[in-house]
Amino acid sequence: MPLSWGPEVGSYMKSRIILATSLTLLSTLSPRAASANTEPTAYDTRSVTLAQAGVSFLERPAAIAINPALLTGIEKFSFSVMFDPIFVNTCAPVEGPNSSRCTGVSFGPLGSTFFAWRVSKRMVWGAGAYLEVGYGATYEDVPNVDGEPDEVVGTEPQDQSVTFFVGELAMGPAIAISDKWSVGIMLRLPIAAQTADLYQNIGAVSVLPNPSYARIHNQLGGVGIPSARIGVSFKPNDMWTVGAAWRVYTKIKMTGTTQTGVDIPGLETLNAQSDWVMPNALQFGASVKLVDKKLLLVAELRIQFHEAEKQGNQTQTVHVSLPEGSDPALEALLPEPTVAPFYWKNVYSLKLGVEYQIIDLVAIRFGFNAGNSNTREQFAQIFTPPPGIAIGVQTGLGFSWDKVDFDIGMLFSQFGSTIGPEVAQEPVEVGGELINLCSRDQVLRTGCAGDYQVRTFFLSTQLTYHY
């Protein structure tokens, strides 16, 4: 539906407002995650079925992405290929407070591949490619965006769609310092891509009638600053292993375009740039083998430091510039950098797993994990995980032959929370200003009352070769 501009708004103001709104929209995007955690950590099927753990026991090539010190358990050479299809259904009050709208079951492929080979008696070298973050959501044919009447929003149903992923390439050594101690360090190169195709209220940040809706399309992507994952393993005897790993913070500089909808030559599509932060994360735990080493018990804790002021996910800033060859006079129409709030919380997750070797060929596995969401109630939106506590259960089988392992597994998680009307009753401070939540003050409304829910199902398979 075309916007209806008042006679008091000139072409200069129209273009500047739409551009600013495009950037505000992009900077507030955080697509709904595959679970309550924005980082699914699905690298290895055995790990997935044991509560997505592995920091103390996973002596496989996928240790590159969990605890690289464990690579010293590889004898000569090993590689793995994992396919981890994920099915997600998310529901949120897309059409205004206390409404209910679901995406329907959507499919997303996750996967990984890892290699590791022994280069000396004490050193193993590893390399791999894997998905560190992968999520998204599409609400199709939304007839009543934000609960606004058709004469305000438009008469045609609108799709609301976002996608985001971060993949990583990693390589590095693991060294056995002694018979009991090992260390490993992987150099990580993150790669990110983000798209958004949304119909949103641009009147919230303009002198236009509020609300005023328009469709904005953004595409960003880029390569991050190389960083590290450091791990240590301590094995005091044949029964116990203790492990810890630190994923070091890194920043990904994304560049791309913003399609603004402006019909002024040179301003239809702008260059856009924004940073995405991968915060520090710690994981540590222990495992023990019992019953003639047929029974494996695992316990781990993972912490993601999203709350860090400068190295966390508190805000996101977006800058724009004119495409090469543009008229320099258009520079005056570009908006200032736009800052949007996330204010994510630190994530704490507990992982418990059990594996039993039924016979030499077959092992059965079960896992349980629980953790808090990174989302605060005031900033909950239709594309982010709900606030609260999420619980997941996993199970699977492992088949072992002489040189080949084949693993299958499943993960199911259902997580939801209800936000009451009291959350939006008091204004909150964003960027030094007080705004009313779930109102026309916001381009992307947050804190709206209603039920938020996400159901996730993984079906994981993996082939590992070793000798």
Structure description:
The protein has 467 residues and is mostly beta strands. It has a single domain (11-466), classed as Beta Barrel (Porin). It is built from 3 helices and 22 strands. The chain has helices spanning 11-27, 45-49, 150-153; strands at residues 77-92, 101-102, 106-118, 123-142, 158-176, 181-201, 213-223, 227-234, 240-247, 250-259, 269-278, 281-290, 295-304, 315-321, 338-341, 347-357, 362-372, 389-400, 404-419, 428-430, 433-435, 450-466. It has a 14-stranded antiparallel beta barrel with strand order 1-3-4-5-6-8-9-12-13-16-17-18-19-22.
Features:
elongated; Porin; 467 residues; 14-stranded antiparallel beta barrel; mainly beta; two-stranded antiparallel sheet
CATH class: Mainly Beta
Question: What name is given to the CATH topology?
Answer: Porin
The global form is elongated
Order of helices and strands: HHEEEEHEEEEEEEEEEEEEEEEEE
Question: What is the overall pLDDT average?
Answer: 87
Number of beta-strand segments: 22
- Sheet with most strands: 14 strands, antiparallel, barrel
Proportion of helical residues: under 10%
Strand order of the largest sheet: 1-3-4-5-6-8-9-12-13-16-17-18-19-22
Give the domain tally. 1
Cα radius of gyration in angstroms: 24 Å
- Classify the secondary structure makeup into a structural class: mainly beta
Number of distinct helices: 3
Q: Oligomerization state of this entry?
A: single chain
**Beta fraction of the residues?**
over 45%
